[in-house]
Structures are given as structure tokens and as C-alpha cells.
Amino acid sequence: MGDGDLCYRHDLQYMVYGHDMSTMPRASAEGSLPLIGNRLKLARSAAGLSLRALEGRIGRRVTAQAIGKYERDESMPSSGVLIALAEALGVSVEYLVSDQDLVLEAVEFRKKAISRKREERHVQARVVDLLERYLAVEELLALPSVEWDKPREAPYPVGGDLAAVDHAALSLRTHWDLGRNPIPSMVELLEESGIKVLGFDLSTIGGLTAYARRGGNRVASVIVVNRKHTGERQRFTLTHELGHLVLDVDANTNADPERAAQRFAGAFLMPADVLRMEIGKRRTSIGWNELFSLKRLFGVSVQSLVYRCRDLGIINDALFGRLFREMSRFGWRSPPYWEPESLDPERPSRFERLCSRAVAENVISDAKAAELLGMSVREVHGRMEQPPRQ
After folding, report:
1. Three-state SS for 376?
2. Cα separation of 323 and 177, whole Å?
3. Domain check: are 185 and 36 in the same one?
């Protein structure tokens, strides 16, 4: 290693960590610099940029070919280029040079067949980036959240008979001491139970669920929901993804994991005994006014409510078909799946709340909070010092 490498390492340490060299990622026994390739590629994918676009974003300080070499760990950028890359990608230099790789496993997307693999890679990269920030502020506050609060019996086995799914939903409700009452906020329930909930603007993807590992150890269970969807769609997506976490669908049967997760969402949000009490055990006719009243009660779409009534045998196939033909005529079954009396979207708040707590307790600076939250220091000040506007 030459004198230039030594100078570069010192510049990089000072640039990222100030005078505190102890927090700099350790070099290997051979004295090599931290490898940034995987994180740089993830950050570029999260930003939706090609190599050529990133070259332009940093003012062509280096070529796209050079950036490609950084991503393959064939060379390292200078300190100035590293700063430019971090600013262009909206991440910190500390993130790029960290030696703690976070990996997503068992990724399950709730999607239509038209979703693109490119979008899936883009979303996964964004999840890794935001989850890194989430875990960082938890660690600073000494709040490790390794495993979510799941029943001892979970994951529940599901074979060809989907009735087992209803039992799983009831068991989880019992474990979380929810009774049979409608759930006010699915986001708050999941976050209180140790599941990381992230909200993104997505196009063809409704949501995803995944486990995150670092250094071979599981560090988080994650659910992502489309921030652009209505509240009732978000609630169903969040519960559908919870189904993927709590169910073990036997691959040797004809059970469909997506259908099982859909059944779980209906059973968890609309417990059978409560729904039957509200609507009756058998119906041959039902009006829209009654259905929308039940929508407000359970916080679900009318479409999900009709599916649940059919699953429980409350309505027959003939009535189910008539209701769905009318919903198609109204346009409720086509994108963007809007129907009257849509609920307000549910917004994950725990991560932002932890960042505010860390600032208030002088654990992190305003600038660090702004970096973690992806906003300006002025916005951080405003949220800390002014109440929300009505």
C-alpha cells in the first residue's frame, strides 16, 4: 500500500466521522479499504439511475465506466467523488463505506402479473436503504428489535383446506389480545408488534414482505405498503403481507400462498362471528347502504367484504356474481380501484418518531436526523418546534 492510499484512508475517515476514528469500518488484515460496490449499486438502483445517468448527476466527474468499476470493487473513488456520489444518490458517505451488509430474504411481492422485475429490484434497494436508517436510529437509542411478537405456534401450517387460515387469524388476534373488535390502525398494530412498516410510492406493486439479515443474523421483519393507495387497500395489503409472515403453506398441496394470504386478511380484519352477527348467517339480498355501513365498521373495501361473505357462505355464488357485476359497472374493480367513502391512507410513523426522540435526547444532531429522514434541517426544525397544521 502506497502513501497515496494512506492519505486517502485518512481523508475518508476524517470526512465521514470527523476526528473519531474508532467508528470507521475496520480495514482487513491486508490493509484494504472498505468495499463500496454492493452498497453503491443498491443506492443507484434505489434512485432509479443508470450508470450513464449517475455520471451526469455528479457532473461527469468520472465516467459511467469508472462507476461500474466501483460497483464491481475493481477500484475505489477519490474522497471528492465519493462525496459527490453520496449526494447524488441521497445517501450518506457513511452508508456507502459501511462494512455491515443488510440482505433481504424470502421477499414476497403482492402484485399484478404486469409488474416489472426492474421495479422489484428498485423497490428492494429502497427497502434496504430505508431499513438501514431505521435500524441505525434504533441502535443509537438502544432499542434492538430483532423478532416480531408472533405466537409460539406460528408459522401455522396450511394445506388444501383454507379453513385453517381462519384459525390462524383468530389465534394471532388472541395472542395480540385484540378480541373481536375492528382494528383502528393496521400500521400502528404492526409497528407495536415489532414489524417494520415502510411506505413507498409504488406503481404496479401493492406491497411486499421480507426478512432482513445482517452478518447471518435476522434483524427485522419488514412489510412495505404502497403510499398512494387508499386506506382500505393499504389495510388489506398490510394484513395480506402479515399472512405471508404467519402462514406456512404446504407446497405439496394445491393451496395457493397468495389465496391463503388473501383469506387471512379477510379473516383477520373481519372475524367470522362478528361479521355474521352484523350481517346475518344467510343472505339472499343485500343493499349498498348496508355494505358501506359495514365498510366503515371494519375499515375494508366493499369488494373485500363481499369476498369474505362468500367465503363464509353468507351469500351464495349468484348474489356474489351480481354484486361483482355491479361493482365492475361502477368502475370499482379497475385501477385505481376507487370506490365511495375511501378511507384516509395509513402512514407509518415509528421511524420518524424515533428520529425526533433521538434529537430531543441529544443522541443525534438535527443534521443527522435530516439525513436519516431524507429531509432538510429546516423541515426537521419545523416538525420539532411547531404543532401539525389542522
Report:
1. coil
2. 34
3. no
pTM: 0.80
pLDDT of residue 246: 92
How many domains, the chain? 3
Sign of CA dihedral 135, 136, 137, 142: positive
**50 within a domain of the structure (yes/no):** yes
* pLDDT for the residue 8: 41
Long-range Cβ contacts of 351-355 (<8 Å, 24+ apart): 351/130, 351/133, 351/134, 351/137, 352/383, 354/134, 354/137, 354/138, 354/141, 354/143, 355/137
Same domain, 290 and 375: no
Instruction: State which amino acid sits at residue 266.
Output: G
User: In this structure, is residue 104 part of a structural domain?
Assistant: no
* pLDDT > 70? residue 275: yes
Per-residue b or e along 19-55, where b marks 16 or more CB atoms closer than 10 Å to that residue's CB: eeeeebbeeeeeeebbbbbebbbbbbbbbebebeebb
* Residue ranges of E strands in 144-262: 156-158, 196-200, 205-214, 217-226, 247-249
Query: Coil, strand, or helix at residue 8?
Result: helix
Grid cell digits, residue 135? 435500524
Q: What percent of the chain has pLDDT over 70?
A: 87
228 is written with which cell numbers? 398512494
> Do residues 363 and 295 share a domain?
no
Q: Residue 175 is part of which domain span?
A: 156-330
- Cβ atoms 197, 245 nearer than 8 A: no
CATH code, domain with 196: 1.10.10.2910
CA distance 136 to 119: 26
Whether residue 222 sits in one domain with residue 356: no
Whether residues 212 and 299 fall in one domain: yes
Q: How far is CA 281 from CA 87, 174, 213, 316, in A?
A: 60, 23, 46, 11
Q: Which residues pair with 205 in a beta bridge?
A: 111
The reply to whether 252 and 359 lie within a common domain is: no
Q: Grid coordinates 443506492 are at which residue?
A: 43
Q: Cα 210 from chain centroid? A: 8
Same domain, 268 and 168: yes
